[in-house]
Every structure is written in C-alpha cells, then in structure tokens.
Amino acid sequence: MQIIADDAGLHALGATLARASRIAVDVESNGMHAYRARVCTVQLAWEAQGGVACAVVDALAVDVAALAPLLDHRGPEKVLHDLGFDARVLSDAGVHLGRASDTEVMARLLGRPRTGLASLLAERGEAVSKALQQHDWARRPLTPPQLEYLAGDVRHLFDLLDQLREEVARAGIEPEVEEETQHKLRGALRPEPPRPPHARVKGLAAEDDVTRSVMHELLAERERVAARLDLPPYKVANTEALLLAARSRPRDAARLSSVSGMQRAARSPGGWLAAISRGVARGAPPEEPPPPQPSQAERASRSRREAALRAFRRAESQRRGVEEQVVLPGHCVEALSARAPETIEQLRAVDGLGSLRVARYGERLLGLLSAG
Fold this sequence. Notes:
Elements: E1 2-4, H1 7-18, E2 22-29, E3 39-48, E4 51-58, H2 68-71, E5 77-80, H3 83-92, E6 100-102, H4 103-109, H5 117-123, H6 144-152, H7 157-171, H8 174-189, H9 209-229, H10 233-236, H11 239-248, H12 253-258, H13 263-266, H14 270-282, H15 296-320, H16 324-327, H17 330-339, H18 344-348, H19 354-371
Parallel strand pairs: 1-4, 2-5, 5-6
Antiparallel strand pairs: 2-3, 3-4
C-alpha cells in the first residue's frame, strides 16, 4: 500500500500506471460534510507481479488533474463499481473518465438482486468493510486503518470484473452492457440543471402565501450560510425546522431559538430574522412560471405507450432468456413513452437506446408507440 502525497510520488505512480493494462479506480469525497463535494482521495489498483498493488492519492496534497492522461480515454481500461459519482467528482477536479468498465452495470444487467460492491464480493466469499462510509475524508492525517479501508474498494475489482465479464459473454449481452455503461458515464458528466431549494420541499405548495414567501427567504439564507461555512445545508438547519420558522415567523432571537431545530441559527440570528421580515413584507413567493405539464389526454397516451413497452420488454426478455433491463432499460422506457419518436432517426436520438436495439427492435418499437 502506498500513499501519494507529493508531486514526485504522483509522477512515479503515473509512470507505473502507464505500463498497466488496466486500473481499478475509486474516489472518496467530503460530500456529506461540505457545501460542495470535492475529491479527497483517489484509490488506484493495478496488477503487479505477485498480485494486486494499491495506492491512495491524497487529493488534498497533490493535483489529481495530473492523472488525466491515465484516467481519461487515452489511458488503460479503468474498472469501477457504480462509476456515476466517481466520474462526476473527478470531472470537477479536471479528470474526465474514459475507457471505463462498470461492475455495477454488469451485475444489474445480469439480474443480480443486490448490486452493491459489498454484496457482490460477499457472494465470492470476500469481505469489505463499510464502517467508514460516512467518514469525513477531508480530515488528515490518514491513518493505517483508513488506508486499508480505502484499498479494500479497489483491490478486488479485477477478479470481480473477470467473473462478471465471463457471465456477460455467456449471456451474449456485451453490447447492451457497453451501451448502458456509456449512458451512465454521459449522464454523470452532463451538468445537472439548477433546481431551486424550495422545489425540494415536500408539501410547500399547500402552505399559505406568507409562509411560502418566508420559506423562500429562509432557504436562500440557509444556502448563503452553508456556502460561507462550507457545510451541507441540512447541517445548518434542517428543512422541517425552517418550515416551522416560516409558519411561526419569530421576530427576535429568543423566539427564533424556541423553534425546534433552529437553535444553531439563533446564535447568529440577524440574517435569519431579516429573511423572515423580507418574506413577510413581500407577502407571497416570487412568481415563477409553472413547469410545463402534459394534458390529461397526453398523460393517458403516455401510460398506454409505457404499458405497451413494458409488455414487449417482458415478453422479449423471456424469449431471449435475459433480464428485462437488457431489452429496454427503464430510462429508455421512460424516454420513449414521453417523446414517442416516429422515425428510426428519432429513435437513434434517444440516449442509451443504442444502435443495436434500434437495429433489432426499431420497427417494432415504432409500431408500439404509434398505436399508443
């Protein structure tokens, strides 16, 4: 086990990995403990004489962007388990993952009931600890037990990949696995559309105008405080506490402190009380155009299309002896039902459907969709 915490070590590791045929990769961040997640460690494994060698790159001490030529499309094959999060945070650090295989995708399309890494390894008689799943990986120094924990997520990936790859080949679903992996990678690298904090508050629309107005202001204040303190918003004040404050609208620090869950906020009450005052003065939340909603007739048509696609998927999976997700992943069913493409070219534009499925099922899918 190596820990890489300086540029010389990173350069030497890069030279070693450049000779590897494949690299196992995992990433840990401080996402549960910070306003915005950042890469804290990158765990790497490679096949060496006598077994599997592992290294942990301290991303707080070195610039992991130096690993880009190895981890993007130019480098060896990368092996990951459930690559979405890793690809996203690596991209934020300047590394765009490429040539990647995902053991979670393979397990899912093979129909494994549990696709978590620990579960898949347990099937093989291998145990990995999950005791540090919620650890703040920005804390230093990294202790020997922590380094051993980090290595555990990559040292078994090559054997797991080889086993699953054999099963995928026997099932004849290599193209579908590759398409799903690339779809997952594209989704991870696609910028997420901005979503205002109030859109995540369940039941807010049922509150009165003033409560909703105050809640908008309190949520905005929470974002400002969380960004300043570099904390996840829920650690500043949870949403239930903010809603209680929006309903009761305290006007001084003592009353703010009496609201369950707002004691921490009440230590610096100025911004919170000002937010409440702004919301009350405005009297109603900002006007926002409602998201477009399909008509009742269109919703009914979508339901018919979805039912037809699911029936087709079920029958075809039984005929081929493969999992339903191999025939049509759930995201494809959803996209086809909503968009109802009318031509082969429009089918090709559905991300994740892939050229093989278009060639194999294109005309049948168009027929099902037109009937809906």
